[in-house]
Amino acid sequence: MNARGALGRYGEDLAARRLAEAGLTVVERNWRCRSGEIDIVASDGDALVVCEVKTRREGEYEHPLAAVTTRKAERLRALAEHWLADHGGPPPGGVRIDVVAVLLPERGAARVEHVRGVA
Hints:
It is built from 2 helices and 5 strands. The protein is of the alpha+beta class. It has a single domain, classed as Trna Endonuclease, Chain: A, domain 1. A 5-stranded mixed beta sheet has the order 1-2-3-4-5, with helices on both faces. The chain is globular and about 45 Å long.
């Protein structure tokens, strides 16, 4: 695994931990289909949560949340539809798209921000 892949994996591990701390249950990680990949699929009560994880080193790029553009949100909705088609359809609580932003400072603990319902 290269450095970028290791950084992304670390961010996804932190995100999964944050989601669990918030009461969500991680159902699947790194689900792939021909159209792309969902970083984390979780359940929040009777709702399904498709979660995009964006990890950045502080100062290198824009804030991780800025990377989730309208186009990316549309792609996440399409990926959610594919996941639902493979897993029996929508749950009673519907589907929500969340983003977890992980910002890694040069020193100190990572900052993890969970934003619900971005798309």
